[in-house]
Specification:
Blueprint lengths: L14 E7 L6 E7 L8 E9 L2 E10 L3 E6 L6 E6 L3 E6 L8 E4 L5 E6 L8 E5 L3 E5 L8 E4 L5 E6 L6 E6 L4 E5 L5 E5 L6 E6 L6 E6 L3 E6 L8 E4 L5 E6 L6 E6 L4 E5 L6 E5 L20
Antiparallel strand pairs: 1-2, 2-3, 3-4, 5-6, 6-7, 7-8, 9-10, 10-11, 11-12, 13-14, 14-15, 15-16, 17-18, 18-19, 19-20, 21-22, 22-23, 23-24
């Protein structure tokens, strides 16, 4: 795990799968990790903080299966949700030394993605699983509110729209990007985005119609939901599958991606030469990535 501001922390025996900056605490990051590349063994939620001395481990929690994703609560600065290889979601309170507070077990295969809605007044969580379903949750309710079916392959990524209440996107091994509305039972939009498994997707923070996908074909593609016949941009440069991508919270045309080629790449899709920088700090698959809401340039 590293940051653009400098510093690294090693978690021996663990492989990081997701990293997410706290929306409340500058420099605080939650990491979901697994032993043995998530194939076997346990998982750990590590909460890290960067200070003048470097990156320090504030708190860690263990789970009996690999942890693949993590999301911060939008109404409590201490609460996090992780998703696990046993199909369950765990709710943790970092103010406590032990946990989890709750476990929600409904997915029948690996829960690979979890995201907490940023829409004010809407306490909703979406999870995506290798069982080909996405589930809608209210963390205060002990069971899912709805199960979304339609994907014909494993779901790798589920992410809420930062603009449209109750709207989320999912990316799948069935080579499609899908957009869903929690107020309507069926899928809203199906985009055959790649000729390969899609491992990640994200919404632009400045354009409610713009999404980007990253896939096993090493490409990033931008999609305008008003015209899905062809991508609005294609970004090439990675040499292996793109594992995760994030739009910048500060720049409308800036995004970052990380890959099984061990690199993190920064792009500006508005430029003729969109690849801005390639960072080669990692010596293993690079799976988790986030951009700080508090500190410009901190990754």
């Amino acid at each position: 795990m590293g940051t653009a501001g400098g510093g690294a922390l090693r978690l021996p025996g663990l492989h990081g799968y997701a990293a997410e900056f706290s929306p409340y605490w500058p420099g605080r990051v939650a990491c979901a990790a697994a032993q043995y590349y998530g194939i076997a063994g346990c998982g750990t939620l590590a909460v890290l903080e960067q200070n003048k001395a470097g990156i320090v481990l504030l708190r860690s929690f263990d789970w009996n299966d690999g942890l693949f994703d993590v999301t911060w609560s939008e109404n409590n600065e201490h609460v996090l949700i992780t998703s696990s290889g046993d199909g369950s979601l765990q709710i943790w309170d970092t103010a406590k030394t032990k946990g989890p507070l709750q476990v929600y077990k409904e997915h029948t295969q690996e829960a690979y993605s979890v995201d907490w809605s940023q829409t004010r007044g809407e306490q909703l969580v979406v999870s995506g699983s290798w069982d080909q379903t996405a589930k809608l949750w209210d963390p205060a309710v002990g069971k899912s509110l709805y199960t979304f079916k339609g994907h014909e392959g494993v779901i790798y990524s589920t992410i809420w729209s930062p603009h449209i209440p109750g709207c989320f996107a999912s990316a799948s091994g069935d080579q499609t990007l899908r957009v869903w509305d929690v107020k309507a039972p069926g899928v809203k939009l199906v985009i055959p985005a790649h000729h390969a498994e899609i491992l990640s997707c994200d919404w632009c923070k400045y354009d409610e119609n713009l999404l980007v996908t990253g896939a096993v074909d090493c490409s990033l593609k931008g999609w305008d939901l008003r015209n899905i016949r062809q991508p609005v941009f294609i970004l090439l440069g990675h040499t292996y599958a793109i594992r995760r991508l994030k739009f910048s919270p500060f720049h409308a045309t800036l995004l970052a991606s990380c890959s099984y080629d061990f690199t993190v790449r920064f792009w500006d899709f508005s430029k003729p030469n969109p690849l801005l920088e390639t960072v080669e700090h990692h010596t293993e698959f690079t799976c988790g990535l986030d951009l700080s809401l508090h500190n410009r340039g901190q990754v």
